[in-house]
Amino acid sequence: MNNILIPTTLQKDTVYALKTALSQSEENSKTIVLMLLKDTPDTASAAFWLRDMQNGLTGLQEEILEQCHDMVSFHPNFKLQVHQQFSVSGPLLRNFIEAHNIGLIILPDTFRKSQLEINRYCLKLLKNSNVPILQLAAEFDEHQFSKALYIENSDSNVQAKDLPKMIGGHFSFRIISQAKFFDDQNHEEMTPVLYDTIYKNGIDLLIETRKPQKISLSKKHKSSLNENFGLPVLSVCEPVY
C-alpha cells in the first residue's frame, strides 16, 4: 500500500502536510490524495446541490490548492488527486482506503482540531483503520523523522522492533528511547522526564499505538500525552490476534 491520504480543510498547514508527504521516497510512483469533506446539502433540489458542490472553496482555500498543485509538479513520481467527499461512513471509508491503496495518513493539525461534525466523525473512523497515521504538530517546523521515542501503553502487544515493518517503510527512523505507561499512572509526573529525554537525544518523532474504539461524537477529544510535546506523533494500529 503505497499512496498517501491527507484529510484537509485546506488551511496553511496543508502545505506542510504535503511537503511531508513529498519527502517520502520517490523510488516508486505515489498518489497523494487530498480529501475535503462536506455534509450533503439538506435539500431535494439537484440544482442547489450542484451549486453547493461547485462553490465550496474560499479564496484562501483556492490559493492553498493551487500552491499544492505547483509543489507536486516538481516531483515527477508523485501525482496529486483532490477528492471531495459528501458524507462519510465506516464501510465507505474502508472501501476508499482499499481502492486508493492508502498506506499512510497524514493529519494536518487544523483538521485534527476541526469542530465540523463530519470532520470529527471522519477522524474517529480513520483512527479505527489499520493504516498508520502521522499527526502533525501545530508548529510548521520541518522534521527529519530520524530519532523516535516510543511511548508504549501497558496493555500493548507491539514491541519496538516490530514498528518499522508495521509502518511499511514510510519512515527510516531509529528508536532512541522507550517509555512505558500504565493506566493508573500519573502522566504529569513523567512529563519533565520525557521532556529531558526528548531534548538530550534530539527526538523529532513520537510513536504510539492505538486500538479501535467505539465511536461517539458526544465524547470530547482527549489529548494524549504525546500531543503535549509539540512533536509529530506517528500512531500505529495494534494488530488483532
Written overview of the protein:
It is a single chain. This protein is 32% helix and 24% strand. The protein has 241 residues and is α/β, with parallel strands linked by helices. A 9-stranded mixed beta sheet has the order 3-2-1-4-5-9-8-6-7, sandwiched between helices. It starts with a strand and ends with a strand. It comes from Flavobacterium noncentrifugens. This is Universal stress protein family protein.
Overview features:
alpha/beta; Rossmann fold; nine-stranded mixed beta sheet; 8 helices
Concise summary:
With 241 residues, the protein is an alpha/beta fold. It has 8 helices and 9 strands.
- Hey, roughly how much beta strand do the residues contain? 15-25%
Based on the coordinates given, report the CATH architecture of the largest domain. Answer: 3-Layer(aba) Sandwich
Stretches where pLDDT falls below 50 for ≥5 residues? none
The first-to-last residue Cα distance is 21 Å
What is the mean pLDDT?
Answer: 83
Shape: globular
Number of helices: 8
Major sheet strand order: 3-2-1-4-5-9-8-6-7
CATH topology of the largest domain: Rossmann fold
Helix content: 25-40%
Characterize the largest beta sheet: strand count, sense, and whether it forms a barrel.
Answer: 9 strands, mixed
Number of domains: 2
Number of DSSP-assigned strands? 9
Radius of gyration: 19 Å
In CATH's first tier, which class of the largest domain applies?
Alpha Beta
Q: SSE order in H/E notation?
A: EHEHHEHEHHEEHEHEE
Within CATH, the superfamily of the largest domain carries the name: HUPs
Structural class: alpha/beta
Protein name: Universal stress protein family protein
